[in-house]
Amino acid sequence: MEPLHPGSAIQLEDVTKVFDGVVAVDRLTVLFESGRTHVLLGSSGCGKSTILRLILGLLPPDGGTVRVGGQAVDASGRPGLSGRMGYVVQEGGLYPHLTAYRNVSLAAEARRWGGERIRARIGELARLVGFGDGILRSYPAELSGGQRQRVSLMRALMLDPPILLLDEPLGSLDPLVRADLQQQLKEIFTPMGKTVVLVTHDIREAAFFGSTITLMTGGRIVQRGSFADLVRRPASEFVTAFLSAQAPTPEMRELLH
């Protein structure tokens, strides 16, 4: 067992989660080291999103322990973790009746930040994601998919949490918008030194973001390492099959060259 890291490290130890008799996470032990970008990779239903919800405390484990920065994520420890984790979901998960500005500012308002402090922080975040002032006056229905995801990212970063959890944040976007946002997110993550856990089923996205990739199936880890490790030293036939399933065919590769 790896030692527990301080700060913003996340550790799951022998964690199990079951839904209606179906095991979603199966006695999982894993450490997400502080200050690195980690990718949870796998097909739908392999347990990736459930792990994020366990880390957030949105779901209790049926067995085992979840810790963030050494603090247990349970009824007693959860209040102390409030504000330490930002969460971005697919489609943004924005409140449709609030403007983009209010969606971003809610968490700070709940902590009784002053108006000037909120405006200054939102201004910083708007510059970070490349927004002009007009965008933030719009409602979610008036924004494109890529704009909604940028607003969701601003909301997750509002309190400057040391941990970011992203659940298929780009999955519904068209390829060009997705590629643009991938590059922008990487430019944001790299200098911030935050602990990032990103869920995806896309191997190209995993290779682009992840310093460490955790490939899962059936609620268990199949292999963990760099993308090069998975390609060159696959731990099982499943690893090779999963990577090959998303690889372009020889005919496509020929046309692209």
Task: Itemize the secondary structure elements and their pairings.
Elements: E1 10-19, E2 22-32, E3 37-41, H1 48-56, E4 63-68, E5 71-72, H2 78-81, E6 85-89, H3 100-110, H4 115-129, H5 133-136, H6 145-157, E7 163-167, H7 175-192, E8 195-200, H8 203-209, E9 212-217, E10 220-225, H9 227-232, H10 237-245, H11 250-256
Parallel strand pairs: 3-8, 3-9, 6-7, 7-8
Antiparallel strand pairs: 1-2, 1-4, 4-5, 9-10
Helix pairs in contact: 3-6, 4-6
How would you summarize what this structure contains?
This protein is of the alpha/beta class. The chain is 40% helix and 24% strand. The radius of gyration is 19 Å and the shape is globular.
What would you say this structure looks like, in words?
The protein is of the alpha/beta class and 257 residues long. The chain contains 11 helices and 10 strands. A 6-stranded mixed beta sheet has the order 6-7-8-3-9-10, sandwiched between helices. A hairpin with a 2-residue loop joins strand 9 (212-217) and strand 10 (220-225). Helix 3 runs parallel beside helix 6 (145-157) and helix 4 packs across helix 6. The longest helix is centred in the last third of the chain and has 18 residues, at 175-192. It is globular, with a radius of gyration of 19 Å. The relative contact order is 0.17. The model is unreliable at 1-5 (pLDDT under 50).
